[in-house]
Amino acid sequence: MSNKTKLILLAVASLAFALAFIFIDLGRNWDYALPRRLEKVYAIVLTGGVIAFSTMIFQTITNNRILTPSIIGLDSLYLLIQTFLIFVFGSMNMAVTNENINFVISIGFMVLFASLLYKLLFKGEGQNIYFLLLVGIIFGTFFGSITEFMQVLIDPNEFLIVQDRMFASFNNVKTDLLLIATVLVVIVAVYSLRFIKYLDVLSLGKDQAVNLGVDYDYVVKRLLIIIAILVSISTALVGPITFLGLLVANVAHQLFNTYQHKYLIIGSVFISIIALVGGQLIVERVFTFSTTLSVIINFIGGVYFIYLLLKESKSW
Amino acid sequence: MVDVKNVSKGYGNKNVISEVSVKIAKGKITSFIGPNGAGKSTLLSMISRLIAKDAGEIYIDGMDLTRCKNNDLAKKISILKQSNHINIRLTVKELVSFGRFPYSQGRLTKEDRKFINEAIRYMELEEIQDKFLDQLSGGQRQRAYIAMVIAQDTEYVLLDEPLNNLDMKHSVQIMKVLRKLADELGKTVIIVIHDINFASCYSDYIVALKDGRVIKEGTTDEIITPSVLNEVYEMDFKIEEINREKICVFYS
Ligand SMILES: Nc1ncnc2c1ncn2[C@@H]1O[C@H](COP(=O)(O)OP(=O)(O)OP(=O)(O)O)[C@@H](O)[C@H]1O
Ligand SMILES: [Mg+2]
Question: Any one Gene Ontology biological process term (chain A) (predicted)?
């Protein structure tokens, strides 16, 4: 099967899943249910696409197929921000209850953190990207520890609200945020178009990319900023879910078996949509909301991850 | 012409290249020789901007290397490193096609394909062009990488130990290709090479490095002498003339 055919099949499958999600059990109150379901599907497509895209380019930049952008600590930072806001201001404060304000605060701090991190690390020339990852892991762990510390001290009722944000969920998509998130994603996506052509070359590694005329530091820095913004958007929208990226990026690599990002990116976006819509279908219709989507994604992702490790270890 | 002026490079507080100045003639083959750790690869990587220098200047055709646009440089100078590892699965032909990126930015034209096929033919890779790199022997892979550099079609071609892993037949074949690049297409070829007899038979100029310094440079005739080689490698050489080529004998 050619890669084009695979893409078309994935597109059809995504569409089918989306339609199934929208129309199965629509019931008599469809004028109430339909718009909500449409919103939900839209949110899923948006986050799914963003996660797939950002993980794919992150793995290309790092030349590593078992990393996700969460390794630079953005997920942990998000949880720290949420916990901190509730810890300091209480759960009834505007910064917590008003979704737009919370969204702006979260994104603002995540992007600020990412830029500080990059600034620090890219100051000296020739810094290597693995050093960035190392520092990211350390910060991530650090954020995680402070978060836990605050969660221990927090009032148990307030902790429930924190806990609610610890897991990604589409059960109550923050509809107000969809518009602003869409605008941001579109801006970032348009900006990232000019860098797409470099991705194939970047997957050859730094030296080859430089030899072939890619302004490596410039391009990688821009791509990392794009990743930080996109991850921040999706995390603020539904919660930490970058693990999904690992899953879909690897499935895309396996399915398409090519280095060409035109297939990998579009393919992984569709796979991501299928996984999310399918997962959400299971959550809603099989488990009737007794579990969350991230539990399912993390379970499937975890199993797949172990499979990958076992398989990779054979080829060593 | 490549003009290296007082270039230095250090790691930690160890100087790996110390105030090296050297001029490399256009349209000729220049070989860098010297013992392991002399700094040959480091110098080559700096000339090809893969690593940054600590001090000094490098000019290519009168242009300061640090001021050139990356994509323009990629059409002027290409490098093959001493060891190459690529994380993704590629066929020989796909790898060679990447050599055209500076021109095509990923969209291959008819002309690009012409260069790709020519490079594959030059390196006698036609039969294995659709094989994946990880299915090849070390020498076949090395030839595929060289083909990529040839497809890049740059005025300056830098190769770090291109004969790595190659048998005699293919070593000779590659040196002949390099001669052709220099003599017929006027390209400037700079190689790092350990086999002193290949350096002697195929290069126009030789630059001898040791401990991060250029200790001798000159035409091949000037360098391939027992006294110079003794100074570079600290061992005894006998030099015989066979078919008007200077052949070094150093097995003792
Ligand atoms: N990234 C690095 N960090 C620290 N030291 C380095 C690094 N790269 C090279 N060196 C040191 O610089 C010196 C010169 O290395 P270089 O690779 O240029 O040698 P070379 O002449 O190419 O040797 P060979 O013939 O073995 O390839 C060596 O002593 C090496 O240990
Ligand atoms: Mg070397």
Answer: siderophore-iron import into cell
